[in-house]
Design a protein that fits this description.
The strands form three sheets. A nine-stranded mixed sheet has the order 3-4-5-2-1-6-7-11-12, sandwiched between helices. The protein contains 17 helices and 18 strands. It is globular. The chain binds adenosine-5'-diphosphate (ADP). Adenosine-5'-diphosphate binds next to helix 1, strand 13, strand 14 and helix 12.
Length: about 450
């Protein structure tokens, strides 16, 4: 099959979270199954590790007229990439601007044009998250569609239902060059244009990244105002669990680690702990809990902050890597200063340090309020680091309590401390901890079976 993917982030070129990881791994897994994949994403100022060949501009129908966008082509491990060039994407960050919806409408509108320019006419079009939420609607109703693109089967994947892309209806239709007759279509969310809801309505099939999250979003607690829409489309909504790129996340070969190791040589894992503790001035004889996370409300890091003194009393040490909300960053700085030798924090985004923490820590705290799939628990398990996680979304689908990690229900410091206490007991009984480490490390988190599920889905639409 010829599969066209569109996403605002693709690892290793651009990344703020798990969406990028998925787009970095799933296309390669689909290629391995014998399919052709073209991934389209914006060309950001901050883009890494790509030296595309710029083959000229295309005229993208946009904003009542046409906008020129550059077409940069690239190929890696059998996957074809096209980067869309425009000054709208050449900023210091990927997101966070008042005109984000307009910027990603331009990107969305460019997808068919750039694909046609490189001669890729797809059998199926797969869009990811709100940034490309209007793609199914554009393929269904857009003017100036290149040959072979109109009415193509579409799949839309929700990586996070909280971010939906809101804008004014009239202006959005004008940007996308869509007829005003669509004003009262699925895009209309109480008088505003909602990119995610448009995707729910117009995509042929909707997936989210774990079976549990696919159920949770049908209720008000997790649906972020779209629970009614999720219930309405439940006949075409399924959950397909993400995998991780086990080539990149591999303790046996990871170049970011001071010491590589396998499940058979767990003594070597300790070397990573020693090196990390030395770097951050922590006591290596204490069990160590790590956190690798965006610092946003969803991730519940405030729970760990509130629980820290009790956590240290349980005899854990703590290291946090994250960036996001300034108030959380300040709290972490203050806690670190108050607990020398027992707690460390690094505020920022650092891939290498993330790898080192996964390898060095004994456990990883994931106190998420909701978690569509979550990758950090799978990465941690692959590195023999046991997740202590809230029982929500993909965390439920990937962690087996007291075998591969620890789960707790209550979104409160008490809930988290209950689980960290259970984990502390297991750690003290070294045999049980070792058993859990080897169980966690032998879990299969490869993309293979999920990629096949996507193929079966694409074929069912054709
Ligand atoms: P989300 O996409 O909601 O942020 P996921 O668990 O799906 O959460 O994916 C998080 C990804 O981002 C993982 O690859 C994790 O290692 C990485 N990550 C998160 N925060 C940081 C950070 N501060 N530095 C480096 N990597 C990070």
């Amino acid at each position: 099959m010829r599969i066209l993917m569109a996403s605002s982030e693709v690892y290793p070129f651009s990344k703020t979270g798990g969406l990028a990881d998925v787009l970095g791994a799933l296309p390669e897994a689909l290629v391995k199954l014998g399919h052709e994949v073209l991934v389209v994403s914006p060309w950001y100022k901050t883009l890494k590790e790509a030296t595309p060949l710029w083959i000229g501009d295309v005229e993208v129908p946009f904003d009542g007229g046409a906008t020129a966008c550059g077409v940069g082509t690239y190929e890696k491990n059998g996957v074809r990439y096209v980067f869309v060039g425009n000054s709208a994407f050449e900023r210091d960050s990927i997101y966070g601007y008042d005109d984000d919806v307009k910027r990603f409408c331009l990107f969305t509108r460019a997808v068919p044009q750039v694909s046609a320019r490189v001669g890729f006419v797809p059998d199926v079009v797969h869009a990811h998250d709100w940034h490309t939420g209007y793609l199914p609607m554009v393929l269904e109703h857009g003017w100036h569609m290149p040959d072979g693109f109109a009415h193509k089967p579409t799949v839309f994947t929700i990586h996070n239902a909280q971010y939906q892309g809101l804008s004014g209806i009239e202006e959005t239709l004008y940007w996308l060059r869509l007829p005003t007759s669509l004003t009262d279509s699925y895009m209309n969310y109480f008088g505003y244009a909602n990119a995610m809801q448009a995707a729910l309505g117009f995509a042929w099939h909707v997936t989210t990244v774990s079976p549990t999250y696919a159920e949770e979003i049908k209720g008000p607690e997790f649906g972020y105002g779209l629970d009614g829409s999720f219930r309405h489309i439940s006949n075409k909504l399924t959950g397909i669990l993400n995998g991780i790129d086990t080539g990149i996340w591999n303790p046996e070969t990871d170049p970011n680690l001071p010491q590589t190791y396998t499940a058979k040589r767990l003594d070597k894992k300790l070397e990573n702990k020693r090196a990390l503790c030395e770097r951050f001035n922590l006591d290596p004889s204490k069990p160590l809990i790590g956190v690798v996370s965006r610092l946003v409300d969803q991730k519940g890091i405030d729970t760990v902050i509130e629980a820290t003194s009790e956590l240290l009393w349980q005899d854990w040490s703590l290291i946090v890597l994250g960036s996001g909300a300034t108030s959380l960053e300040n709290d972490l700085h203050a806690l670190t200063a108050a607990n020398p030798g027992r707690m460390a924090s690094y505020i920022g985004y650092d891939e290498g340090l993330a790898h080192h923490i996964y390898a060095a820590a004994d456990a990883l705290a994931i106190p998420s309020r909701f978690e569509p799939c979550g990758l950090t628990q799978m990465i941690a398990m692959r590195y023999g680091t046991l997740p202590i996680a809230r029982a929500t979304g993909g965390l439920v689908d990937t962690i087996d309590h007291d075998r591969t990690g620890f789960l707790y229900e209550h979104d409160r410091p008490e809930g988290f401390l209950w689980a960290s206490g259970v984990a502390r007991g297991a750690y003290a009984a070294q045999d049980h901890w070792r058993y859990m480490m080897s169980e966690a490390m032998s879990e299969d988190f490869t993309w293979e079976s999920s990629a096949q599920t996507y193929i079966d889905l694409y074929k069912s639409l054709g």
